[in-house]
């Protein structure tokens, strides 16, 4: 394994992939997935704490993916610079990877959602869906050009991109202006022609923060891990303040009293409260994994084959739901099936990781 790979990052990626799989098992097997936490329209409600927490823990996944992708871009560029890669070659590499992710959204991911929805009795989805691979691919494409920007400029741009959707939503700006371009770039939308959950620019803000985090890792790895815990606590404390004020940064106010409404925040687009909550938790987990590296080796198996895991788990849980639980199971009975799926995925990822390690450094298989 490359000495430039940092196990805590792979372990965090593996962990958030596991909780992401819980969310999709909830959809395909339990048939209990809530409506999305959209900036407009009906907001999700939950019958009990288990239903909410089953969804809540999975919120770590998307921001974690974009943040870790940014850090990985910085680390990859540095390690390949030492191997003699030119900056042009590195930029071209990330452009190609970004475009591949976007292509896989429409070639593989959309088909998996379509099949899974039909097989699990959920009905057909809209023909064009812009999901997380579209967002990741678009963000990687743009990060290929932003990765060498000065840190101060990159930090400012990342913050602006994260706040811009809420500024537009709260203003008199015509949100249908240039739509669907608005949906593809800034504010999620659903129409007869497409459903867009991951517009590129807000999530690029998290990738930009990841680029900066990668630079800190290159300067002092252990100190950065230690400071991750402090930063994580600070972000969670700021979340409490911003959510309690219930103004700018929330996109939508709390639906009512109680802790569930307090924690139930807008994900599409990522509100400031969503980012503070999830990024804070991810940084705490990263610091924890850095302290207990020997205990994270099984998480790393998942974390080093993320794209393979992502595509495979969608088809796996969709087929499990169809063949064994066509009527759904409810949430509680879904949990052991989720774990069985993870066991299958573990050995598949283990085998794929070994296969990938035998390929040439620039082989397409290594992208997964």
Structure description:
The chain is mostly helical. It has one domain. It has 14 helices and 3 strands. A 3-stranded mixed β-sheet has the order 1-3-2. A hairpin with a 4-residue loop joins strand 2 and strand 3. Helix 1 runs antiparallel to helix 3, helix 1 crosses helix 12 and helix 3 crosses helix 11.
Helix content: 55-70%
Describe the sheet with the most strands: 3 strands, mixed
What count of helical segments does DSSP give? Answer: 14
Main structural class: mainly alpha
Low-pLDDT runs = none
Short descriptors:
368 residues; single chain; 14 helices; mainly alpha; three-stranded mixed beta sheet
SSE arrangement:
Layout: H1 7-30, H2 49-56, H3 61-82, H4 87-119, E1 129-130, H5 132-146, H6 151-170, H7 181-185, E2 189-190, E3 195-196, H8 200-219, H9 221-245, H10 259-263, H11 272-291, H12 297-303, H13 306-324, H14 331-357
Parallel strand pairs: 1-3
Antiparallel strand pairs: 2-3
Would you kindly provide a brief summary of this structure?
This protein is mostly helical and 368 residues long. Helices cover 68% and strands 2% of the residues.
């Amino acid at each position: 394994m490359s000495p430039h790979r940092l196990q805590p990052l792979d372990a965090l990626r593996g962990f958030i992939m596991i909780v992401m799989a819980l969310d999709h098992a909830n959809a395909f097997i339990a048939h209990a997935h809530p409506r999305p936490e959209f900036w407009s329209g009906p907001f999700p409600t939950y019958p009990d704490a288990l239903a909410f927490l089953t969804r809540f823990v999975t919120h770590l996944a998307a921001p974690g993916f974009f943040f870790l992708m940014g850090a990985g871009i910085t680390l990859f560029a540095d390690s390949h610079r030492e191997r003699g890669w030119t900056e042009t070659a590195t930029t071209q590499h990330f452009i190609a990877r970004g475009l591949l992710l976007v292509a896989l959204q429409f070639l593989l991911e959309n088909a998996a959602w379509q099949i899974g929805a039909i097989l699990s009795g959920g009905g057909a989805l809209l023909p064009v869906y812009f999901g997380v691979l579209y967002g990741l691919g678009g963000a990687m494409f743009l990060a290929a050009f932003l990765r060498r920007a000065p840190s101060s400029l990159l930090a400012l741009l990342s913050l602006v991109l994260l706040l811009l959707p809420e500024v537009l939503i709260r203003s008199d700006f015509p949100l249908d202006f240039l739509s669907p371009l608005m949906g593809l770039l800034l504010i999620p939308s659903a129409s007869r022609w497409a459903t867009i959950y991951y517009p590129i620019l807000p999530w690029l803000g998290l990738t930009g923060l990841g680029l900066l985090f990668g630079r800190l890792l290159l300067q002092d790895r252990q100190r950065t891990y230690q400071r991750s815990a402090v930063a994580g606590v600070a972000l969670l404390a700021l979340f409490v303040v911003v959510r309690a004020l219930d103004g700018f940064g929330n996109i939508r106010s709390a639906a009512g009293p109680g802790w569930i409404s307090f924690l139930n925040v807008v994900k599409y687009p990522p509100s400031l409260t969503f980012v503070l909550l999830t990024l804070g938790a991810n940084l705490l987990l990263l610091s924890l994994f850095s302290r207990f590296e020997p205990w994270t080796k099984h998480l790393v198996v998942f974390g080093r084959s993320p794209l393979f895991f992502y595509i495979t788990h969608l088809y796996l849980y969709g087929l499990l739901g169809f063949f064994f639980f066509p009527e759904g199971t409810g949430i509680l009975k879904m949990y052991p099936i989720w774990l069985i799926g993870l066991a299958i995925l573990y050995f598949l990822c283990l085998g794929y990781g070994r296969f990938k390690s035998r390929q040439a450094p620039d082989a397409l298989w290594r992208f997964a």
